[in-house]
Structure prediction request, 306 residues.
Amino acid sequence: MQYFEDIVVGTKSSFGNHPVTHDEVVAFATKFDPQPFHLSDDAAAQTHFGRLSASGWHTCAMTMAMVVENMKAHEQAGLGSPGIDELRWLTPVYPGDTLRCETEVLDKRPSSSRPEMGSYRSSMTVFNQHDVAVLKFVSIGLIRTRSGGKASE
Amino acid sequence: MQYFEDIVVGTKSSFGNHPVTHDEVVAFATKFDPQPFHLSDDAAAQTHFGRLSASGWHTCAMTMAMVVENMKAHEQAGLGSPGIDELRWLTPVYPGDTLRCETEVLDKRPSSSRPEMGSYRSSMTVFNQHDVAVLKFVSIGLIRTRSGGKASE
Prediction:
């Protein structure tokens, strides 16, 4: 189990191998982002996208699926995420693509008010099968301290 | 149809009335964010969340659903979004909640290289039925100019 004290700034990780399927692209968009370029090839052909592409939020959700899968092998005393900075959709994601993640720990700091926890920031870049970056963001993570704030431990 | 020239900085909008359902919270999390506090009340009770809450990315997706629904009544010559800044999940979102959006146009600028388009930034705040803010972010939108870059029009 990884705690705040175990986080090493500069650590890089690569993980994920997530197929983007036509049916899931259409199902996600139908429910959450029903714009023509996310619903069908024919409708997308009439737009600046030219062909069916995944909702940007679907790409974020697929990224989360890879993150959670990766956490199974690398358990953390995590306390969730307060947010994301500098999210950029760089290239359209298409059915048939396969996505993977590269992360790097940017910085960490103990909580000033709650000694039982700290936070750290990581960069996330998602690539497709052509090694083209499709999404990047900086995530903030909260994580327990091993000591739980008890200085004597 | 609204073009870049029609965007007025400071314009505020309120829209959306989106129910958060137990089944959709579990379905989204099962596919994209299968952490215990997003999968069942029993599993969530063992965690710092205490009860079942929606994946933060699900809240983003529900927000997009409200945005797209609102666009039906307020058509834009939109060209998609390059990204999001300062995204913060402020309060857990629970099954049974109802979400709504408040937006404000923060600034706009013509493209320096492509006179046929411009960009603008908007703040988004999502509230639950108790008027508690659950999510906020700043979105960047791309939009065509009415002139299409032809100065003589």
Q: What stands out?
A: Chain A has a mean pLDDT of 94.
